């Protein structure tokens, strides 16, 4: 709050204290931030409370936030954000604000509001800047670019776009003529996806007076306007791109159309995954500021999450930084800067901080890329952990806000023995200057110089230096994955596998990247020990990289497949292998037809590291190996013969971990360096994921029938005997009270089957935080549905499973639990070519779980007939509702094709629900719908199944209810009666 002595002398009173009441103790910035949490109608009501509230509640930046938060569909700007928000509220015309002048009040001054108003109305045409400090080059050769600029420093290159049609066709008027009705994505500070038709966006640009205007930043412009891709080509300097081995729908976002008015721009950031970028300007002028890697700009705060390494940057808007922070910098601390002119292309190397301000309306195209120069940096940035991510973004400032002199001594006294004592906080923060701070800026420039001097003294953007900050105890397979990574864990593993096959001449480089991202060197050591113990051939150079997209390292040998269990930590791994081995034993005893289609198990055991050396212990799933007994994973009384880590024990483990945050481990602490493994016979052929596009419709129908038959065989397989003593041991866990969990809806446990008891209570725990989990996943799950999820999911899961009272007052269920695979996806189905014998056991390249040297491409095999031969990967076996197995099959294998689901069900032939004719379903129609049951399992699933659903059925992103989603996705199930 600012006091004006002159105004007080003239008799003007300070309105603020009386008008804000108890809120007067808060600065204007904080009051404005609080208002953002209200609804548009509440803000309109609050504007009537007092004169100062009227002023604060009529600020356009506030209404912009309220409008974008409530938007559901394409945006149309109505001349002001308040009018736009009122339009979205669908208010009757008589409630529209009358056309009159706004009220004005004396006695209230706010520097915060004044600065924001100034930024909203300032013009940049008269801004003068120093001469460019970025080199300008014309006719730059590829060799010169690699030696002088790539991975070293930015450069402005002229002439690269001279022959592009876009050079003349990409003007506002021309694009309006050709693409006026095309909706493009808009950049704004929200996770929500905002679309505007180009004609509406042009109208917005002409009318707006925003301090941080919206701008088009669309990575799908080539899909919505394919003609734009014909107007430009990737310059010859940037054509090497390691992402080119991925199909278009597999690639992370890499190209953007950028259109923005004066004052808009990109605030300070480092490009995702430490990729490099080029940006070509076709219209207007852009002002660029850049800092080398690790040198955090003044006014920027970097947060690195300790759990998953996710990086969040707090930064002022581009315009605010140029107005408020740039003038404070000493000459030696100023960024590298330039003004980009039409036709010029700027190159931004990996890891460089940059900020862009549009000096007038601009149109540009940009692409990010991975090449041989930045590949290792990209792999490093993907790796789990947070130490290295903090250092990559913030240099030595990642060591916190303490004594930089002490950090200097601790770190560089021994470059191989880093002291991370300053980094052991939940969230890492590099604080230079709080973006919202109002100056007094006295001393800020000096402090910045001191920190930058430290950056100059020791930080090196060198891959060997940065790699030393990796947390070696975290492995790629078993650590939380950063939500900010440009691709998921499965996609990252597949990308490296495809590079390994597709770029054999660059395997030395790819191996280095795999060691950074996958701990590939550690897993290769483990593989060699297992091979030596079982007298298997040593891994060849071709074999040394794990294959596929799975959550465990898998290796293809000549005739064998070796899988090392690491997913979820040791306890999850030992239950995974134990259950799988118990399943194989029962499969043989029951002489199930499924046995023919499951790879033979050749060996299994446990590998552990002790005192620097590896030891291998064979284990067939029976009994408890000493190394596991010493790890305290199981109570003493449970160390019995049989399968102590079999199905029933695994169900209790799943119950204990249900609803836990992903970062919380379950009694596996101190158990690193122990890995179960399994050796199976290598199948001939290819995985379905690599031949999907080569299959005829008849082959696809045949696959659907095959899966129906084999799922039937799986679900008919008898369960192992129930060890009631084990169930009794965990009853004390079942008795534990749950906060915010309605225990009274569960039937009395003394009157319910033990396996059903565990299953129901597990579902209850999964429901407990379902809305929080869905909110964390966010887009494309609609917020309107997230708000309704708790009322859609039942409170009484006994009703969901159709329990009834049977003999001896025991509750039973009309749909018995069975073995479920739970992970039949396109990389767990094996296919063989049935027309020609393309594969033989002698040809290792022609038989593989993942690849036979073709990198998943055609290889002239189109037109051949493919038939399913095996179902793979039973480590996720569990006990549950058979309908759960439909989720991965329908969404991943069938990709939502209802005709394939119908064909599958014809071969499956088992009922998902068998109810006597005299029984009725309690609880209304929804409990009688199989579609409701399947939809509930999708919502409660540990994985983001809903993301897949809203990715396949994009029209459901505007759905008003879960019932609409349910019937669209799973409606075919309601026509299925089964064959009793």
From TrEMBL:
<dbReference type="InterPro" id="IPR041667">
    <property type="entry name" value="Cupin_8"/>
</dbReference>
<keyword id="KW-0539">Nucleus</keyword>
<feature type="domain" description="JmjC">
    <location>
        <begin position="223"/>
        <end position="386"/>
    </location>
</feature>
<keyword id="KW-0560">Oxidoreductase</keyword>
<dbReference type="InterPro" id="IPR003347">
    <property type="entry name" value="JmjC_dom"/>
</dbReference>
<dbReference type="Pfam" id="PF12937">
    <property type="entry name" value="F-box-like"/>
</dbReference>
<keyword id="KW-0479">Metal-binding</keyword>
<dbReference type="GO" id="GO:0016491">
    <property type="term" value="F:oxidoreductase activity"/>
</dbReference>
<keyword id="KW-0408">Iron</keyword>
<feature type="domain" description="F-box">
    <location>
        <begin position="20"/>
        <end position="66"/>
    </location>
</feature>
<dbReference type="InterPro" id="IPR050910">
    <property type="entry name" value="JMJD6_ArgDemeth/LysHydrox"/>
</dbReference>
<dbReference type="InterPro" id="IPR011009">
    <property type="entry name" value="Kinase-like_dom_sf"/>
</dbReference>
<comment type="similarity">
    <text>Belongs to the JARID1 histone demethylase family.</text>
</comment>
<protein>
    <recommendedName>
        <fullName>JmjC domain-containing protein</fullName>
    </recommendedName>
</protein>
<dbReference type="Pfam" id="PF13621">
    <property type="entry name" value="Cupin_8"/>
</dbReference>
<dbReference type="InterPro" id="IPR001810">
    <property type="entry name" value="F-box_dom"/>
</dbReference>
<dbReference type="GO" id="GO:0005737">
    <property type="term" value="C:cytoplasm"/>
</dbReference>
<dbReference type="GO" id="GO:0005634">
    <property type="term" value="C:nucleus"/>
</dbReference>
<dbReference type="GO" id="GO:0046872">
    <property type="term" value="F:metal ion binding"/>
</dbReference>
<dbReference type="InterPro" id="IPR036047">
    <property type="entry name" value="F-box-like_dom_sf"/>
</dbReference>
């Amino acid at each position: 709050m600012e006091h004006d002595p002159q105004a007080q002398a003239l008799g003007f009173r300070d309105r603020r204290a009386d008008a804000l009441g108890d809120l007067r103790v808060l600065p204007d910035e904080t009051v404005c931030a609080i208002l953002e949490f209200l609804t548009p109608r509440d803000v309109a009501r609050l504007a009537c409370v007092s004169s100062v509230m009227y002023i604060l509640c009529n600020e356009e930046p506030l209404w912009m936030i309220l409008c974008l938060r409530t938007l559901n569909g394409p945006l149309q700007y109505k001349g002001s954000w308040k009018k736009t928000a009122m339009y979205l509220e669908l208010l009757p015309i008589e409630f529209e604000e009358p056309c009159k002048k706004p009220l004005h009040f004396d006695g209230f001054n706010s520097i915060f509001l004044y600065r924001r108003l100034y930024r909203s109305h300032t013009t940049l045409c008269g801004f003068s800047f120093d001469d460019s400090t970025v080199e300008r080059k014309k006719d730059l050769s590829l060799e010169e670019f690699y030696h002088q600029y790539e991975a070293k420093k930015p450069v402005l290159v002229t002439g690269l776009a001279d022959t592009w049609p876009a050079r003349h066709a990409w003007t506002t008027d021309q694009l309006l003529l050709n693409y006026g009705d095309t909706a493009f994505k808009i950049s704004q500070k929200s996770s929500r996806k905002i679309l505007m038709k180009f004609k509406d966006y042009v109208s917005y640009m002409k009318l707006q007076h925003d301090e941080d205007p919206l701008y088009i930043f669309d990575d799908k412009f080539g899909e919505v306007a394919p003609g734009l891709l014909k107007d430009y080509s990737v310059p010859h300097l940037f054509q090497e791109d390691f992402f080119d081995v991925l199909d278009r729908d597999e690639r992370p976002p890499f190209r953007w159309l950028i259109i923005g008015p004066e004052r808009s721009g990109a605030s300070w950031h480092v490009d995702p995954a430490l990729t490099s970028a080029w940006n070509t300007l076709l219209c207007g002028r852009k002002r660029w500021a850049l800092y080398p890697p690790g040198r955090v700009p003044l006014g920027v705060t970097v947060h690195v999450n300790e759990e998953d390494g996710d990086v969040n940057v707090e930064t002022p808007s581009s315009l605010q930084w140029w107005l408020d922070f740039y003038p404070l910098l000493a000459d030696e601390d100023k960024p590298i800067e330039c003004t980009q002119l039409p036709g010029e292309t700027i190159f931004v190397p990996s890891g460089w901080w940059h900020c862009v301000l549009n000096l007038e309306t601009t149109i540009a195209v940009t692409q990010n890329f991975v090449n041989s120069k930045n590949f290792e940096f990209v792999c490093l940035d993907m790796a789990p952990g947070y130490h290295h991510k903090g250092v990559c973004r913030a240099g030595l400032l990642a060591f916190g806000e303490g004594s930089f002199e002490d950090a200097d001594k601790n770190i560089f006294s021994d470059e191989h023995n880093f002291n991370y004592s300053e980094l052991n906080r939940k969230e890492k923060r590099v604080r230079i200057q709080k973006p919202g701070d109002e100056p007094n800026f006295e001393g800020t420039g000096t402090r910045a110089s001191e920190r930058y001097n430290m950056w100059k003294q020791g930080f090196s953007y060198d891959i060997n230096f940065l790699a030393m900050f990796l947390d070696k105890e975290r492995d790629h397979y078993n650590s939380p994955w950063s939500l900010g990574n440009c691709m998921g864990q499965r996609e990252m593993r597949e990308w490296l596998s495809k590079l390994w096959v597709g770029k054999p001449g660059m395997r030395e480089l790819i191996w280095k990247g795999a060691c950074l991202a996958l701990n590939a060197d550690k897993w290769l050591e483990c593989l060699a020990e297992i091979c030596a113990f079982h007298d298997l051939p040593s891994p060849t150079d071709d074999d040394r990289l794990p294959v596929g997209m799975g959550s465990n390292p898998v290796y293809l040998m000549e005739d064998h497949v070796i899988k090392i269990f690491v997913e979820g930590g040791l306890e999850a791994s030992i239950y995974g292998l134990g259950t799988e081995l118990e399943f194989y034993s029962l499969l043989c005893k029951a002489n199930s037809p499924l046995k023919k289609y499951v790879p033979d198990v050749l060996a299994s055991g446990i590998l552990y590291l002790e005192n620097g050396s590896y030891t291998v212990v064979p284990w067939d799933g029976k009994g408890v190996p000493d190394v596991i007994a010493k790890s305290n994973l199981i109570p003493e009384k449970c160390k019995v013969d049989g399968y102590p880590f079999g199905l029933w024990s695994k169900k209790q483990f799943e119950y204990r971990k249900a609803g836990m945050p992903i970062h919380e481990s379950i009694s596996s602490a101190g158990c690193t360096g122990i890995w179960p493994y399994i050796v199976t016979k290598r199948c001939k052929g290819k995985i379905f994921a690599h031949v999907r596009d080569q299959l005829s419709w008849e082959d696809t129908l045949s696959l659907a029938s095959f899966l129906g038959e084999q799922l039937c065989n799986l679900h008919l397989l008898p369960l192992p005997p129930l060890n009631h003593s084990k169930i009794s041991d965990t009853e004390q866990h079942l008795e534990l009270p749950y906060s915010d969990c309605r225990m009274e809806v569960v039937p009395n446990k003394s009157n319910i089957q033990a396996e059903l008891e565990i299953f129901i209570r597990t579902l209850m725990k999964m429901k407990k935080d379902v809305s929080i989990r869905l909110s964390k996943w966010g887009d494309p799950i609609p917020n309107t549905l997230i708000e309704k999820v708790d009322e859609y999911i039942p409170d009484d899961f006994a009703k969901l499973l159709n329990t009834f009272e049977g003999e001896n007052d025991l509750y039973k269920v009309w749909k018995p639990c069975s073995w479920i695979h739970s992970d039949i996806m396109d990389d767990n189905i094996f296919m063989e070519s049935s027309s020609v014998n393309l594969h033989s056991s002698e040809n290792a390249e022609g038989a593989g779980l993942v690849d036979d040297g073709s990198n998943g491409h055609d290889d002239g095999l189109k037109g051949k007939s493919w038939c399913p031969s095996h179902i793979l990967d039973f480590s996720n076996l569990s006990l549950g509702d058979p309908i759960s197995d439909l989720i991965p099959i329908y969404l991943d294998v069938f990709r939502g094709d209802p005709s394939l689901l119908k064909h599958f069900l014809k071969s499956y032939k088992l009922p998902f629900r068998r109810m006597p004719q005299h029984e009725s379903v309690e609880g209304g129609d929804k409990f009688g719908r199989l579609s409701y049951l399947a939809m509930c399992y999708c919502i409660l699933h540990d994985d983001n199944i809903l993301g897949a659903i809203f990715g396949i059925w994009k029209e459901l992103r505007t759905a008003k209810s879960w019932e609409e989603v349910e019937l669209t996705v799973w409606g075919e199930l309601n026509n299925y009666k089964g064959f009793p």
